[in-house]
Each structure stands twice: as structure tokens, then as C-alpha cells.
Amino acid sequence: MSAGVASRRTIAARRTARRRRSVVALGVLGLVALVLVLATPLFRKAVNEFTLPLTNADVIREQAAAKHLDPALIAAVIYAETKFDPRPSSAGAQGLMQILPQTAEFLARRSGATTFTTADLATPSVNIAYGSYYLRYLLDRYGASKLLALSAYNAGEANVDNWLADARARGHRLTIARIPFPETRAYVLKVLQAQRDYRRTYRTELGYR
């Protein structure tokens, strides 16, 4: 091999090595920049709002205090129902907490409200007030059992009463695994997980000390 060829190969090898070092350096810089971005409170807040949204926190806090509920539970039900994006369901449920008009009318009579109209369910503060009232009612009805209250919120009291009667007849408790409706099983699990997530992620917004 001539000295010239060897020299050219050495130069080429050095250039390749420099390019590789440059690529590695750029990769490291990019990773550092990404870590810095991910660490910023603003970015974390944006991620939270996308993956675990929260609006009307003041109303949730007020209704939680008035109804003796965990604010994270109210937020979790809203998350499971609409992810804080209210829209009418195919069954006619309305607003953030997806209240059926007939359920709202029942709650209005029970609470003594005299000016309620179905259109009021589109107002977030009204919807959250009625949804929170219904959660409180269901928790009281089912002995503070979140499993039963959430099941009834999703599937209706009549179904839960039938499941309970069947469970008692068979000599066992109604557990999440024994809920007959797959949708309701998934709903209960989703709300319970979201309750933990909201309590951890939005401690200040939801009024935890």
C-alpha cells in the first residue's frame, strides 16, 4: 500500500470519527434539553391537563365540602364520565357528570329545588352540584360503599340492588370482580384509580393540605 493511500485512509477515518462524535454530542445535548423541558412546571402542567384534565376546581371543592365528599372522587367521576369535556350521551345524560334528566328531576324534588329545568344541567356549577348530591345520596344508600355507589352511578340502583340480592342468595359479597356488567366493572376501577391520581396530582387545586 502506498503512503498516499494510507494517508488518505487515515484522514477519512479521522473524519468519520469526528462525525460520530458530533452525532453523539448532538444526541446528548438533545436528551439534556428534553429532560430540562420535561422538568419544567409549565410542561408538567400541560401534560397533566392533557392526560388528567381538571376544570371548575373551585366548584368541586365547594360541593365536596357541602356534601362531605372527597373532592378527588368528584373529579374522578367527571373524568370517567366526560374527561371534563361535557357532551350529551346517546342515553340523554347531560353535562360534566352526565346526569340523566329524570335523575336530576328526582334529585331536585329530593333536595327541595323548585326552579330546576333540564337546561340547567349544561351549567357546570349546577351539573357538579347535582352530580355531587347524587354521589352523596348513593353513598348514604349503600352504607358508604364506594364500590356500590359507583356501580349504581353507572348502571343504576335497580341493577345494583339485584346484584346484591343475588350475591346474598349465593352467600358471598358483591366485589368488583363479581359485578356482572363488564362496563361497570371497568368504570368502578377507572374511577378509583382516577381518584388516587387526582388526589396526588392536584393537591393544591382540590384543597388538600
Mean pLDDT: 86
The radius of gyration over CA amounts to 27 Å
Distance between the termini: 78 Å
Flag low-confidence runs: 42-48
Secondary-structure element string: HHHHHHHHH
Note the overall shape. elongated
| Largest beta-sheet characterization | none
Number of domains: 2
Q: Which CATH class of the largest domain applies here? A: Mainly Alpha
Return the CATH topology of the largest domain: Lysozyme
Return the structural class: mainly alpha
User: What is the total tally of β strands?
Assistant: 0
> Which CATH architecture of the largest domain is right?
Orthogonal Bundle
Q: Can you give the helix content as a percent range?
A: 55-70%
What is the overall number of helices? 9
The percent range for strand residues is under 5%
What does this protein structure show overall?
This protein is an all-alpha fold. Residues 42-48 have low confidence and may be disordered. It has helices spanning 3-39, 41-51, 57-67, 71-82, 101-111, 124-141, 146-155, 157-170, 182-201. The chain is elongated, with a radius of gyration of 27 Å. It has two domains: 3-39; 55-201, Lysozyme, CATH 1.10.530.10. The chain has nine helices and no strands.
Q: Quick summary of this structure?
A:
The chain is mainly α and 209 residues long. The chain has nine helices and no strands.
What layout of secondary structure does this protein have?
Layout: H1 3-39, H2 41-51, H3 57-67, H4 71-82, H5 101-111, H6 124-141, H7 146-155, H8 157-170, H9 182-201
Helix pairs in contact: 3-6, 4-9, 5-6, 6-7, 7-8, 7-9
